Amino acid sequence: MILDIVQTVINFSNLKNQIRCSQMDKYVYDNLYIYSLNTKYGMSQEIIEKRIFCKMEKLYCYGNDKINNISHLKKTLRVLKCGGDCGISQKDILGLQCIEKLDCVNNYKINSVNHLNKTLRALSCGSSGIDQKGISKLKYLEKIYCSKKIDNLSHLKNTLKILNCSGNCEINQEAILELNHIEKLDCSENKKIDNVNHLIA
Question: pLDDT-based confidence at 198, cuts 50/70/90?
């Protein structure tokens, strides 16, 4: 019962307090886990490999070039933010089996997410290395923030609900005609799109 309470406190605390709680005694340390981690403070690879992080579900390491291996989280990680100058590359995400949400904006080291075709529901890949071929096998994507290398989403016409194809994106008028389930569309500054009447409910 006490362990459950401490785990709940950890789940809603910042990292500093999470660590403090986990060090109450050996029993607590051996039986508690941190499920969400933001490494914006330059946390190292060695730290995220500690036992307390072994069941992590959410990892935010945007711009952290010290983290470059997350294979030990392949069966637990569901949300990954690894954009910018992050150390995580294509080979580092290949073994991930449960990713539902991936944000790799501005990460040119990632070029394909096809191996996540059974789990991925949301993808932000603006200004990344992901191109049309890199999303071609996705089946269940509901949300995408496109890179300028993507020009066709017809294979997602039955699942896609949220689309950001703003700015200098290759998605044009023809590319959105078959998308009948769109609930939210951002095509600001995209001069290739001029009509969304087909999206009227």
Answer: confident
Same domain, 17 and 85: no
Work out the average pLDDT over 41-64.
89
pTM of the model: 0.90
Give phi and psi for 101, each to the nearest 5: -135, 125
pLDDT digits (tens, 9 = 90+) for 1-44: 577 777 777 777 677 777 777 777 777 777 788 899 888 667 88
Whether residue 122 sits in one domain with residue 180 = yes
Residues of the domain holding 125: 36-199
CA distance linking residue 59 with residue 81, whole number of Å: 6
DSSP H or E run through 186: strand 184-186
C-alpha span between 78 and 116 (Å, rounded): 11
* Structure tokens belonging to residue 94: 């290949």
Extract the tokens encoding 135.
Answer: 């999303």
Return the bridge partners of 59, or none. Answer: 37, 80
pLDDT at 2: 73
Residue 63's CATH number: 3.80.10.10
Q: Report d(CA 163, CA 10) in Å as an integer.
A: 35
Collapsed DSSP state (helix, strand, coil) of residue 168: coil
In 12-116, which residue ranges form alpha helices assigned H by DSSP? 15-22, 26-31, 45-48, 90-93
| Structural domains in the chain (count) | 2
Helix and strand tally (H, E) in the chain?
Answer: 6, 8
